[in-house]
Write a structure and sequence with these properties.
GO terms for molecular function: phosphorelay response regulator activity; transcription cis-regulatory region binding. By secondary structure, the protein is an alpha/beta fold. The protein has helices at residues 15-24, 35-44, 61-70, 86-94, 107-121, 159-170, 178-186, 195-210, and strands at 4-8, 28-32, 49-53, 76-81, 99-102, 139-142, 147-150, 153-155, 175-177, 215-220, 224-229.
Length: 233
């Protein structure tokens, strides 16, 4: 299956070698140097992964990420940033990025992060057509099809958000630690900030609340998170 990658980078010293490296890995790669062009391309057709620089000449990369997610893009987004502040990284995760790398970065590490993200976000064929889905109420997590339902409405989530919910739902009512979420949803060798876990959980919590799901993701201070049934659900 062909993997399509969009590189959003305005530095012509970084983008061409990055594109060549990705193409040598067998990916189909497109390159745009402006944020508005990236937003348009993301909305126009299938993409599996976006490598997104924050410092773009027209609009900020964070805005590109936000618009992509608001437009329904569910593929992977890795932020590439030269900004040193942790705040930019946290905001990037808050608006829907799955991962980030600080410049300068090694191409080997970028490829490893990309492969890990693509593995987790790979779509799985549903075992039955949509019309055959059981008409049960409440929250349903279809692991095989990687889809989430509240009553008869599907909830759009990113690959990371889905994996987080699967872990929480497997042990509903029990606490899942940040360390376990980091290891199983991101990478067992992940050494970055656990704030990306909090960001993904926060986005997922809001989406479930907006959909009227009869559950709540509770924060257990200093430990992790617990998926709870809402009283009266």
């Amino acid at each position: 299956m062909t993997t399509h990658v969009l590189v959003v980078e305005d530095d012509d010293k970084i983008a061409p070698p990055l594109v060549r490296t990705l193409e040598r890995e067998g990916y189909v790669v497109e390159w745009v140097s402006e944020g508005l062009a990236a937003v348009e391309r993301i909305a126009s057709g299938p993409l599996d992964l976006v490598l997104l620089d924050l410092g773009l000449p027209d609009i900020d990369g964070l805005d590109v990420c936000r618009r992509a997610r608001e437009g329904g893009y569910q593929g992977g987004i890795i932020i590439l940033t030269a900004r040193d502040g942790e705040l930019d990284r946290v905001v990037g995760l808050d608006v829907g990025a799955d991962d980030y790398l600080a410049k300068p970065f090694g191409l080997a590490e970028l490829l490893a992060r990309a492969r890990a993200l693509l593995r987790r976000s790979a779509p799985v064929e549903a075992a039955a057509p949509l019309a055959a889905a059981p008409a049960t109420s409440g929250l349903r997590v279809d692991v095989a099809a990687r889809r989430i339902w509240v009553d008869d409405a599907e909830v759009a989530v990113t690959s990371k958000e889905f994996d987080v919910l699967v872990l929480l739902d497997e042990v509903r009512g029990a606490v899942v630690t940040r360390e376990r979420l980091t290891s199983e949803v991101w990478d067992e060798n992940w050494f970055g900030s656990t704030k990306m876990v909090d960001a993904a959980v926060g986005r997922l919590r809001q989406k479930l609340e907006d959909a009227g799901a009869p559950v709540h993701i509770a924060n257990v201070r200093g430990v992790g998170f617990r998926l709870e049934d809402q009283p009266g659900a």
